[in-house]
């Protein structure tokens, strides 16, 4: 599938890249854009995508259905995928992503973490950790936007409760 999309890599190379990244940075948060239903995508191709997402343990994934664009090679390709199949595949990947994201976030529990303070409000400091988890901590007097704050990670600090 990646070849027909004219990508210069395949499933094995993606998984190798994930492993290489994590060999240097164990807690690396990896994000990806994922297109479901590109023309000619078979059930086997989708299974490969699912497997990469599952093994990759993505923190963030932008999952969307392929949509043809006028005057592009893909719009004229045979094997256009019906909308209901594209939606079902997107939904299946979104459910997987929700679970892998929860596992990743929960795996950080008790770890030393650092947050870039991006916003302050009454009693709260907001920002992203080094591995791009958006958190809110009780504000300390010394908290300043643009500064780094160290803390012990707790999933209760995560802004989006759907990922805890």
Automatic annotation (TrEMBL):
Which is one GO molecular function term here?
4 iron, 4 sulfur cluster binding
Check the record and name the InterPro entries matching this protein.
rSAM (IPR007197), rSAM_horseshoe (IPR023404), rSAM_sf (IPR058240)
State the name under which the record lists this protein.
Answer: tRNA-2-methylthio-N(6)-dimethylallyladenosine synthase
Query: Listed GO cellular component terms?
Result: cytosol
The question of whether Transferase is a record keyword is answered with: yes
Keyword annotations: Transferase
* This enzyme's EC code(s): 2.8.4.3
The UniProt gene name for this protein comes to: miaB_34
Q: Which residues form a coiled coil?
A: none
Q: Where is the Radical SAM core domain?
A: 1-103
